[in-house]
């Protein structure tokens, strides 16, 4: 069986020792590695039965032998159309379980920085100015937190917030399924009625069509003036113009954004200078352990695939994630 691994600036090339370990775990697999930027056409990976990485979507149709495509990301955007593949019964999986821990820590860091006014103090530090300010700081303890999306990432966020004694309300499309950490799980349709009670709104939703502009002017108007919005899902879940206005008019208290719309955020965009905002360039998943976790998940799935066992992390083409 032939396995092609496509690495890129987001998914680093496995080391020789990691490739050796993968081959030891899955004997009989012929592994080839290729940089995505060196991929000229489908001929370079045409014999692959399994593809691990992000091939240009327009190239997938040319992979006549492909039966399983494993994405290096937790999201499946651009890959959830059966028509992209030569075999419409393709198995598509994603790397969920890789990113929950680092992203949850990133979320917590943004919450603390914004709640403790670190952005204000850092500016003073750069100026060498000792300016005390006792206003505009809040406890995370006992606060009301809405977590939108309770997959791997949302669950890890809840796990860490539970140690802060937060009152957590979770949102997902199927609220009837029990959750290990959240007793109050609501459908997305109840978001607006829940916003007035929230101190923090954490967006961990996948980038589906239904999620586009889920948070806009009407939603910001319902929030507390101290409310802080954190988005590590997809930038287009928030109406950017409405967010800039909400921040600059003190309609809400602040925002922590690892994703933006547009992305990359161009120089001079008004979001860069919006009040009490922290922006990171879509790298909350980065960690010294990210590659190790991702490869471990793929290796486990590869053994399942070879042994005809049930797969997990499968993408629902209709749902888009």
Describe the structure.
By secondary structure, the protein is an alpha/beta fold. It has two domains: 2-98 and 287-306, 3-Layer(aba) Sandwich (Rossmann fold); 100-279, NAD(P)-binding Rossmann-like Domain (Rossmann fold, 3-Layer(aba) Sandwich). The protein has eight helices and twelve strands. The strands form two sheets. Strands 8-7-6-9-10-11-12 form a seven-stranded parallel sheet, covered by helices on one side. Strand 1, helix 1 and strand 2 form a beta-alpha-beta unit. Helix 2 (100-115) crosses helix 4.
Question: Which features does this protein show?
Answer:
321 residues; alpha/beta; Rossmann fold; 2 domains; seven-stranded parallel sheet; five-stranded parallel sheet; 8 helices; 12 strands
Condensed summary:
This protein has helices spanning 16-25, 100-115, 118-127, 152-162, 191-194, 217-222, 240-248, 290-306, and strands spanning 2-7, 30-35, 50-52, 68-70, 91-93, 144-148, 167-171, 184-186, 200-203, 228-231, 254-257, 277-279. The protein has 321 residues and is of the alpha/beta class.
